[in-house]
Amino acid sequence: MLSAIRDIGELTIHKATKIERPIDGKVLVILLDTEKYIYSGTDIEDFDSEKIKQYLFKEGTSKGNVPSPFCPLTEPQKTYKKIQGWIEQCKDIKDDTFKDYAQLIDGAFGDITSNKNTIIADITLKIKDFPKKTRKFLTVKLNGKYLGEYDVFKKCLAYFEETKRKKSASTGVCSICGLPDKEVSGKTDVFRFYTIDKPGFITGGFKEADAWKNYPVCLECKTSLESGRKFIENNLNFKFYGLNYFMIPRLLMGNQMVLEEIINILSDTTKTVALKKRIKKRITNDENEILEYLSEVKDVLTLNFLFLRREQSAERILLLIEDIFPSRIRKIFDAKDYVDKIFNNDSDKGFTFGTIRTFFSKSDENKKTSDLNKYFLEIVDSVFKSRKLDLSFLVKFYMAVIRKEFISDGYFTFRAKDALMNTAFFENLGLITFEEVEDMEESIFSSIFARYGKSFSTPAKRGVFLLGVLTQLLLNKQWTERNAKPFMKKLKGLKMDEKDIKALLPEVQNKLEEYDSFDKGKRLIASEASKYLLEAGEIWKMSVDEINFYFACGMNLTDSVADIAYLKIKKEE
CA 206 to CA 197: how far, in whole Å? Predict the structure, then answer.
């Protein structure tokens, strides 16, 4: 994966691609005059991406209490200390190269230090009326120039980075390019997965000087990695139902033009807009998703999906899906099309990973965060890597959501439909298997069962499903007659077992008789349900969750089944 990031970085450097992400915000500029030894006040400017080099700004490097010449403004006093601390570090450099600039640096430090209280008071006053969401930054101008307009401060910045790098540098083989006798360092900071200043991350007796042995990277590869990370952060960073992922293309042997084309499109605003208009289907909730476009590419590259979570200044890998071919993405879109066709989904409301997320977000709606991310990402991984899923595991989560809807409203059309769509999607991709019974008798409802693949592949599932249909017809009748559904109590909150189901059929029939509503269509459905339940025998090999899932599916598809039944009766008459 890191080699792929390096390759992207080399392309962006070679093509001089402008990859800086636009930043909206305000910059508070401390004005110092080192010739007159005075502080002239604090100006407010709009953040200007064209001035990043003049600011000496490097996004993400000025967090915590680290000194910086340009940093996000949080608390005025703390942020002021970062600016002052950085200038002080410049003042303390013991190197003859900086001797000629001593007066300028000393003057800057003296001015900012002697006017500390006034500067902090001015900053506090100026940000008082800023909206809370406004991004704010703090920096300094000396004699009307930004620090980055002075060669000495650019040299100071380079000096600090070089000093930091050499603490963990040595001569060896670069783990990225594989070249020997290179000056390598273990401090790349491309991804903040580990730190070399804490025990447990460093080889060689926990010495920072030996950290390069963990992951040696030469200076050239480090530069390419940083450029590649920046491009991916700005152009290949996508939303995913409360999560985020980086999509990292990796080129196989040859065909470099394919990767260059992708980089060119994503680097050009006009081309990116045209690409978005061309994409008609998506399987996530991100309008910038480009998976359909990539699914059309030949298998000359693979895609890596890196799900990250930021924790303060660190990053944690939630999931890494490696080496996915475009042909696999095509299969996923084909499975989506299959599901949308079965369920007559609109193009705007078709099947997506959000349909799966419905059941794998929160175990309790009152929870602040999504505590089911682990299971959701495991399923995502299985979809991309074609790994088997356990149907009983899926149904457990289906029913947790369906029962909540059933108990609160007695109505769960969309959730049961979502569960059926998920099952059809997984089955089409070959991720789940069903117990199958061959040579089942033909039924007038065979077209319904065939529509959903192998989901209804045993007599027990079909019998429970049809009983769910019959029960919903009874509930509909009760609602029409009484504006209530008292029979719902018999369904035990959708926690019925095999014994409960077998006892339910005669109760439903009797209740329909009481309402004088057990007509030919309902009798036909009841007859088919009885036939399948008898054919199923005594031991169904179905969990309580599975039994109630198929029962709920029947309740959800009542109209489709009833249409077939009553059409048959009408034709016979």
Answer: 9
Q: Tell me which amino acid residue 382 is.
A: S
**Whole-number pLDDT of residue 187:** 65
Extended beta strands in 92-179, E state: 136-142, 145-146, 169-172
Say if residues 452 and 425 touch (Cβ distance below 8 Å).
Answer: no
Residue with tokens 């008898």: 534
Query: Is residue 16's pLDDT more than 80?
Result: no
| Residue whose entry in the numeric block shows the structure tokens 């799966």 | 356
Inform me whether the pLDDT recorded for 456 exceeds 50: yes
Q: Is the per-residue pLDDT at 322 higher than 50? A: yes
What rounded mean pLDDT belongs to the chain?
Answer: 86
C-alpha closest to that of 422 among 379, 468, 371:
379
Residue 445 and residue 448: Cα distance in Å, rounded?
5
Q: Is 234 helix (H, G, I), strand (E, B) or coil?
A: helix
Q: Is 80 helix (H, G, I), strand (E, B) or coil?
A: helix
196 vs 306, higher pLDDT: 306
Residues in contact with 492: Cβ distance below 8 Å, sequence separation at least 6, in sequence order: 500
**First CA to last CA distance, the chain:** 68
Q: What is the pLDDT of residues 149-189, one digit of tens each?
A: 999 998 898 888 777 766 656 778 888 888 887 777 766 66
- The rounded distance, in Å, linking the Cα atoms of 554 and 364 is 26
Structure tokens at 37: 């030894």
pLDDT in tens, 382-410: 999 999 999 999 999 999 999 988 887 65
pLDDT of residue 190: 72
Of 203, 223, 108, 121, give the one whose Cα is nearest residue 162.
Answer: 223
Residue 77 has pLDDT above 80, yes or no: yes
Other CB atoms within 10 Å distance of the CB of residue 116: 14
How many Å apart are CA 463 and CA 445, to the nearest integer? 11
- Which among 402, 408, 411, 421 has a CA at the least distance from the CA of 547? 402
For the beta carbon of residue 524, count every other beta carbon within 10 angstroms: 21
Segment 205-209 long-range contacts (CB within 8 Å, at least 24 positions apart): 208/167, 208/168, 209/167, 209/168, 209/170
- Any bridge partners for residue 42, and if so which? 30
Residue corresponding to tokens 């969401």:
133
What is d(CA 390, CA 330) in angstroms, rounded to the nearest whole number? 24
More reliable by pLDDT, 365 or 108? 108
Q: Please state whether the predicted TM-score (pTM) of the whole model is above 0.85.
A: no
Q: CA quadruple 537, 539, 540, 541: dihedral positive or negative?
A: negative
d(CA 549, CA 543): 10
pLDDT at 313: 67
Q: Output the CA–CA distances (angstroms, integers) from residue 438 to 318, 435, 450, 459, in the order listed.
A: 42, 10, 13, 10
Angle between helices 459-482 and 520-536 (to 10 degrees): 150
The separation between CA 179 and the C-alpha centre of its own chain, rounded to angstroms, equals 36
Distance CA 559, CA 553 (A): 12
Higher pLDDT, 163 or 119: 119
Residue 107, phi then psi, degrees to nearest 5: -65, -40
pLDDT at 253 over 80: no
